[in-house]
Amino acid sequence: MTFRQFASNNVLRNKRTYAAYFLSSSFSVMIFFVCALFLFHPGLQAEVVYRSAVLVLWAAETIMYVFAFFFVIYSVGSFLRSRKREFGILLLHGMTEQQLRKLVFLENVLIGVGSLVCGIGGGLLLAKLFLMAGSNLLGAPQLAFHVPWQGLLLTVGAFSLLFLLISLCTSLLLGSHRLIELFQAEMKPARPPQASLVLSLLAAVLLSASYLLAATATASNVLLRMLPVTAMTIGGTYFFYTQLSVFLIQRAKRHLTYYWKKTNLVTVSNLASRMKENARMFFLVTIISTVTFCAVGAFASVNRLAGEFDLDYPVEIAYVAKGDGATADVHLRAIRAELASHGIAHRTVSVPISLVEVASSRPFSALERLPLISFTDYKRLLTAAGIEVTEIAPEDGEALLLLGSEREKPLLVHRRPVTYTFRGAPELSVREIGVTQHVAIPENLTLTAGDDREGSFSGLVVSDSFLERLMTASAKEIDRVYMDRFTGFYVEDPKLTLGLAAELTDNGRMSYEMDQPYAMTVSGTLYEVQRTTYRALLFFALLVGTVFFIAAGSFLYFRLYSDLAYDRRQYGALAKLGLTECELAKVVTRQVGLLFFVPIALAIVHSLFAFKAMQSLFNFSVAWQTVMILTSFLLAQVAYFFFIRARYLRNIKKAIR
């Protein structure tokens, strides 16, 4: 038998231990390859959706690759630690350290090559299915089966490099080669684990504080709280597993009525040591699962924003001419001609937007110019869009924030009212009293007012008389009054405007801040871009989330089977003392259930509070998406639990019969 055959036989003989790691690696390769198929597919590149999906695709590829690197290096390190006794036997029989490193290197290369071949093979077999599902979800025409050489080369090159680097680094992960340490690697600690009261309290405080901050977050402070809440949750989770859980188990042992009841003695006695030994694994599974739940749930919820598109864009084609607008007449004639050539009936409304210079504001605002429109013009725009106006006109000296997008409303509602005075008319001032109920001028068509923390808006709506007096006073004191002009083209079906005015916009938009004499939006094109972007985010979040979830399951699988030899000896001894198969099944079910459901349960709790904080950013409820996502992952975990429990119990029973 050659050295290579010896390495391959080692992998095959340990196939039960390596199974989850191999399948997880293969699945990661497969999903990476599928994303590469979409990224380089010529049929998708020709679609409008490609430009909005390409960034999502590259982000998904990068996230999966980085995660795969850390997953592989952690798994390899764990496998090496679990095989120290085997390495001790090989060294005892004359294997040199150089040969041991070569053996481990060859084993990892074999598993890496096998994962790469199986992953790409699985991707090729399921490519058509993924292309059909992705096409339907992205709203693109059905993509033909095509394997771009760039995608195949990217996958082979990226993962070949990954597995090669990990294989070369295995010598650093081997650790000590002293025989006594290698042979004692599988021995359980004789002393029971101890927990620190201070660190246990710290875990409780960190988790409680993070939950409280998440539950009480508002739209104005949720982004500020995100980083500290995340840091406290991660720290609290780590100390929960390493300290607090052990402390609680030790306290439970003092309740003898419970501790000595039936098989509780067997179940609880090793619980503290198992929690301590598996703390790192529990911590990783909890964090990975929380990230998975939150990512998929967030993109599933954000996908609902497409339903509010009609509220954000009541005008199908909006054009704002800046200042004199020397090119405005040419552009407007071109838009009318294009609408006429497509036979699209439309209504046109044009209103002025006054740009006044801010002299001072209380509280301080960094705005230098502020767009103003009259309440009458505001009503004209909404009436043209078929929206009934029920708002009351502001009084002199009062102003409504002109809503630019429905997603800004939760922030603007909590905004501190600002009072403005204007250059050229210091005797006139206006104070914000609320927010308009509807969007009349979509965002990015005027000078952006406000900020990310308190919300942005498109300007102010003031009374007709106040605006007239302000313009008259400003014209007397200032050489010129800046004025933009908004022109809206209202069409019955927004989808008819898809692709119109493409030479004037970039994917349906030309923002006011761009270095152009105009700003413009085309709702049909923007709707298609936004819809496909949100769907692409959800589709690839599901793929990446599934990779994360399967990786978390492989951690659980490996941790369970790494203790199999010790558990066989333990339960074999208990069987000689009279433990029945029924009692054995009950004990194993509890211990395996603890391994599977404690991390998932804590991840679900983390996710619920994360969704509660996220709810503050939306006008609609995300409860349905939250329940659906968490229930789906929980059902998958339950099915995985029963499958692994049956196999594990069968292996334990073989040892006691």
What's this model, at a glance?
This protein is an alpha+beta fold and 657 residues long. The protein is 63% helix and 11% strand. A 6-stranded mixed β-barrel has the order 2-3-9-4-6-5. Strands 7-8 form a two-stranded antiparallel sheet.
Our count of helices gives 24
Q: Helical amount among residues, as a percent range?
A: 55-70%
Write down the Rg. Answer: 32 Å
What portion of the residues fall into strands of 2 or more residues?
Answer: 5-15%
What distance lies between the first and last C-alpha atoms, to the nearest angstrom? 35 Å
Explained architecture:
- With 657 residues, this protein is an alpha+beta fold.
- Helix content is 63%, strand content 11%.
- It has 24 helices and twelve strands.
- The strands form two sheets. A six-stranded mixed beta barrel has the order 2-3-9-4-6-5. A two-stranded antiparallel ribbon has the order 7-8.
- β11 (509-510) and β12 (518-522) form a beta hairpin.
- α2 (15-40) crosses α6 (97-138) and α23 (581-615) packs antiparallel against α24 (623-656).
- The protein is elongated and about 100 Å long.
